[in-house]
């Protein structure tokens, strides 16, 4: 039984309902840090089981509607939110039904609604055209919006947000306890450096553009290798392109998932890391593999169609940025790193410093807590 003093402390805490689709390993330190904060009484509502045990968690019963661009209907969310009088509801991104339900609950009960927004471009899908007016209404009527980047800020302002609503927040991965293991992703490339592209083999990741750029590199630097780490439906197309360009043995596509135990060892042995995402019906909201590479001080190249471009990675300051789907520009970026090791090391060091100074878990937790109080 709580003492009177303990009851007063609990009553004075800000009561927060935190709605999110899931809690993966890179998000867990943020969620766990919030749950341990003495100033908030926070309940988590997730659609999927978290990667690790999370206090005060409710799993929401839901069903995914096929062909509706990540539309997951949360059956019991409204009922669960009604069990407690919250001061704040915070919910993830505009495209999720949990955000629609959470926003409606906040309006009906006259409580503050905070949007966690990583989106910076419209998703080209019929369902999102239908829900676009609702999403614009949510943006205009949020109490605060956590804007995860400069592109996200512009997108929100273009969709009716006021500057006073926005809190610029860093997209982060944990810095401490980076797991290095002997579990190799692919053994026959373990002893040599490679240019690394890390991500699912899907069209918007832009691996085909990178392969074409690498053909120009390979013609001039025949000992270089390119590793496309990940799996996905584009494997056959990419494999056929490699053979067509005569790059068999130089471009390696294992078409298998990278395990958590393999990730950082894979990144650590890379000569440089490339994120070549392109515009399709969807976009690269951020590109957290870039954060992971930056924690190791790796030289990084990204296309301008990534959330991380012009934010964590600023051209010629903390990495190189090129025009999406432009293999000649990408080739020149790769060659610049190859021919100038001092510049390459400087870009990696600058990116790492930005991670240490701003793009980290502590800063993000403080930004979220600030959004509750303002």
Give a description of the structure:
It is globular and about 65 Å long. The protein has 13 helices and 15 strands. It has 374 residues and is α/β, with parallel strands linked by helices. It has helices at 4-12, 28-36, 77-81, 97-109, 126-141, 150-158, 207-220, 235-244, 260-268, 288-295, 327-339, 341-357, 361-373; strands spanning 14-20, 40-46, 57-59, 62-64, 72-74, 88-92, 112-117, 144-147, 166-168, 194-198, 226-229, 251-252, 270-275, 300-303, 320-322. The protein has two domains: 4-172 and 359-373, Glycogen Phosphorylase B (Rossmann fold, 3-Layer(aba) Sandwich), CATH 3.40.50.2000; 187-357, Glycogen Phosphorylase B (Rossmann fold, 3-Layer(aba) Sandwich), CATH 3.40.50. It has a seven-stranded parallel beta sheet, sandwiched between helices. Helix 7 links the parallel strand 10 and strand 11 (226-229). Helix 7 crosses helix 11 and helix 10 (288-295) crosses helix 12 (341-357). 39% of the residues lie in helices and 17% in strands.
- Spans where pLDDT lies below 50 across 5 or more residues: 1-9
Biggest β-sheet: strands ordered side by side in the sheet: 3-2-1-6-7-8-9
Alpha-beta classification: alpha/beta
Number of helices: 13
Give the secondary structure arrangement, pairings included:
Elements lengths: L3 H9 L1 E7 L7 H9 L3 E7 L10 E3 L2 E3 L7 E3 L2 H5 L6 E5 L4 H13 L2 E6 L8 H16 L2 E4 L2 H9 L7 E3 L25 E5 L8 H14 L5 E4 L5 H10 L6 E2 L7 H9 L1 E6 L12 H8 L4 E4 L16 E3 L4 H13 L1 H17 L3 H13 L1
Parallel strand pairs: 1-2, 1-6, 2-3, 6-7, 7-8, 8-9, 10-11, 10-13, 11-12, 13-14, 14-15
Antiparallel strand pairs: 4-5
Helix pairs in contact: 2-13, 7-11, 10-12
